[in-house]
């Protein structure tokens, strides 16, 4: 426990040192980063056990540069100028922070120097960028952090075998998937609390699983398959797991981390931080770390100026889009890539180096995205030379970097790419200029990825001048929906990539006119969709069955900001977050649009369903279950009936309790009425009966003088 020192003792001690505390501005004192002086934070005590994160301190901002030329005094100034020119590019060198030791006998330099930067990050960048720098054929720099020497000196001379600890089985991290009621979990953040619940619509309320205060300092995030829950702290990130215990499984040291991202197969975690430069004229410094989730090992880090990580290789911090690294689809986590200036850098996770040890050159590329299932990149290159060189969309196979398909596009204003989640289709929304260049119109290029030679279809709306408000593919299906129109109430159209009549051509299914919708939310299982009117539409909801082309229900969650389907497609959550000061909380709806229950929370920040891994059943087995659903549903219908009876019994008990309370209240007032009987008789001048019909009501008029006004009239004749 931290010792508490009285202020009087501090003032006395300062007096002995000749310091007047009243003249000291305590607010201007800057504490070393990462040092809490033994005062533990109340909001993150779980990270401060005996195995808490330890950060190096000392000379971490000093680098040692070896293999420099050995020069006499007359060349000393020239060599210092060369070194200063090279290393000032990595950061600000402190005044007097460049020192080259000299041999006292020969007066020549010793071939190495010390450079002190303002920050540790600048020193690390200098080591990364200049280690192996070739000054000339004879002098190749060897650069290390000063603290590394101390670390290596502590390595014992004799090897000692590591102690092998006995194996203790860990918690089954998939146990939550075996819930007997087949329920799903979700996490919410409200105020300083983070809570995990079972969604229990049968009981018309959620069941609390785990709750913790100050669990995270920023946000929480589920891993893509639902195995881990990640939290973010000043010292780094942490992952937690289990069905109800949520023990901490691993920590990842990354000071001032701001963003995190999992790989699709949950093998790796990418963390991001941005640091203000010591020189105002410089851009922010970016640090990206890639960790192995299970071991916590740092697999690779990337450091540099924000410009290097901005989209297209240009722009400041605002130009950085997240995630910077985009992962190839599938559970293998084999490739990840990032965009740069005139190139796409594709890395493989076996060595965390570039595929073929070089980036893929693509002149003027501005956007790319991976197929959700295959190692295929979709690239977009805009028009160049005033339209002389058309825009193009290319499909590139990795690792061979073979171009599978290319489509040239003319008069392009903007372009966005949308993959269907099975990787079967790619939709490219193309905004084109009209001939006058004063306006634009929109069309779609539809790629059939799984078919031979990847055929492409062009789709234009009935009114090609309609503004596209939203686009969304049906998960695991062949349909897509488009919200379009310039009216306050736009139209919603549904299309299919295959129908009974045209298996190889896109066709329109229907158009819903004048809908209060500006967002589309498909069920993860397909078939059902929520047409949502957020922001200006104040939370209008329409639950639509695309198989039957009919509206199942409509509803409203006033001021709703977020909508999310559960991973099974059975339930929908709508939430009002702290973007609005009022009505904070969430509603749970059935897939058909029935409001099941609601929960209010002040300062509501997040609602996230826990993802589920893909089903282990084959498509044939799922089809068989669907055909024999009545046989399987008997068990669950019986359970539903039992729950319904329990709810009815609970309702009966509640009604009986209310009836008992009413009877108790009536008896109390009857007793009071009886106790006051003699008083009533006295007030009635001895009349005993309380029955109103035995009395005759008479109306008596009573005149009462309220005021007297005296009026004096002048006698005009006498005047």
UniProtKB/TrEMBL annotation:
Task: List the subcellular locations.
Answer: Cytoplasm
The UniProt record lists the RRM domain at 61-148
Decide whether keyword RNA-binding is in the record. yes
- Per the UniProt record, the source organism is Canna indica (Indian-shot)
- The name on file for this protein is Eukaryotic translation initiation factor 3 subunit B
Q: Which GO terms describe its biological process?
A: formation of cytoplasmic translation initiation complex
Write the record's keywords in alphabetical order, separated by commas.
Answer: Cytoplasm, Initiation factor, Protein biosynthesis, RNA-binding
Q: What is its main location?
A: cytoplasm
């Amino acid at each position: 426990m931290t010792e508490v020192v009285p202020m009087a003792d501090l003032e006395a001690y300062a007096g002995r040192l000749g310091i007047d505390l009243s003249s000291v501005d305590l607010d201007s004192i800057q504490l070393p980063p990462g040092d809490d002086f033994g005062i533990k934070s109340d909001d993150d005590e779980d990270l401060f056990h005996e195995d808490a994160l330890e950060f190096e301190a000392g000379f971490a901002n000093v680098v040692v540069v070896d293999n420099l030329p050995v020069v006499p005094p007359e060349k000393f100034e020239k060599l210092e100028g060369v070194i200063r020119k090279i290393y000032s590019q990595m950061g600000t060198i402190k005044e007097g922070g460049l020192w080259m030791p000299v041999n006292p006998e020969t007066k020549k330099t010793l071939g190495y120097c010390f450079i002190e930067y303002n920050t540790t990050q600048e020193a690390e960048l200098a080591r990364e960028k200049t280690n192996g720098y070739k000054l000339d054929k004879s002098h190749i720099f060897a650069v290390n952090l000063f603290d590394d020497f101390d670390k290596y000196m502590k390595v014992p001379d004799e090897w000692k075998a590591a102690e092998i600890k006995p194996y203790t089985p860990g918690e089954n991290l998939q146990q939550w998937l075996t819930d007997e009621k087949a329920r799903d979990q979700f996490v919410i953040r409200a105020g300083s609390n983070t809570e995990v619940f079972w969604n229990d619509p049968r009981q018309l309320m959620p069941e609390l699983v785990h709750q913790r205060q100050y669990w995270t300092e920023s946000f929480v995030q589920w891993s893509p398959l639902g195995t881990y829950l990640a939290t973010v702290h000043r010292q780094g990130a942490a992952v937690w797991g289990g069905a109800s215990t949520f023990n901490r499984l691993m920590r990842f040291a990354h000071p001032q981390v701001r963003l995190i991202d999992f790989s699709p197969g949950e093998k790796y975690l990418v963390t991001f931080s941005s640091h203000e430069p010591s020189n105002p004229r410089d851009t922010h410094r970016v640090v990206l770390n890639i960790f192995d989730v299970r071991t916590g090992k740092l697999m690779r880090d990337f450091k540099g100026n924000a410009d290097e990580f901005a989209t297209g290789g240009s722009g400041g911090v605002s130009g950085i889009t997240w995630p910077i690294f985009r992962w190839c689809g599938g559970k293998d986590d084999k490739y990840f890539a990032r965009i740069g200036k005139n190139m796409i850098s594709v890395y493989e996770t076996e060595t965390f180096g570039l595929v073929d040890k070089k980036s893929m050159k693509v002149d003027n590329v501005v956007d790319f995205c991976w197929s959700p299932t295959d190692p295929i990149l979709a690239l977009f290159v805009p028009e160049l030379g005033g339209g002389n060189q058309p825009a193009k969309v290319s499909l590139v196979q990795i690792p061979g970097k073979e171009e599978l398909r290319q489509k040239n596009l003319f008069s392009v204003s903007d372009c966005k790419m949308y993959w269907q989640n099975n990787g079967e289709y790619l939709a490219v929304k193309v905004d084109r200029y009209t001939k006058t260049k004063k306006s634009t119109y929109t069309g779609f290029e539809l790629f059939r990825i799984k078919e031979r030679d990847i055929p492409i279809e062009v789709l234009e709306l009935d009114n090609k001048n309609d503004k596209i408000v939203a686009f969304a593919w049906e998960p695991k299906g062949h349909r897509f929906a488009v919200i379009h129109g310039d009216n306050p109430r736009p139209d919603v159209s549904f299309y299919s990539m295959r129908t009974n009549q045209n298996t190889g051509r896109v066709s329109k299914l229907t158009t819903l006119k004048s809908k209060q919708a500006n967002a589309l939310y498909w069920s993860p299982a397909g078939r059902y969709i929520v047409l949502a009117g957020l922001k200006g539409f104040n939370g209008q909801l329409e639950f639509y069955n695309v198989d039957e082309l009919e509206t199942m229900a409509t509803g409203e969650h006033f001021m709703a900001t977020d909508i999310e389907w559960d991973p099974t497609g059975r339930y929908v959550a709508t939430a009002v977050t702290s973007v609005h000061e009022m009505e904070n909380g969430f509603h749970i709806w059935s897939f058909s649009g029935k409001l099941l229950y609601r929960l209010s929370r002040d300062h509501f920040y997040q609602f996230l369903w826990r993802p589920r891994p893909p089903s282990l059943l084959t498509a044939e087995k799922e089809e068989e279950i669907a055909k024999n659903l009545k046989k399987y549903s008997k068990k669950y219908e019986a359970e539903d009936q039992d729950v319904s009876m329990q709810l009815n019994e609970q309702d009966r008990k509640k009604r009986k309790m209310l009836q008992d309370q009413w009877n108790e209240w009536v008896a109390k007032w009857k007793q009071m009425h009886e106790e006051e009987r003699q008083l009533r008789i006295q007030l009635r001048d001895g009349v005993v009966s309380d029955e109103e019909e035995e009395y005759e009501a008479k109306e008596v008029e009573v005149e009462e003088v309220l005021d007297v006004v005296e009026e004096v009239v002048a006698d005009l004749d006498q005047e």
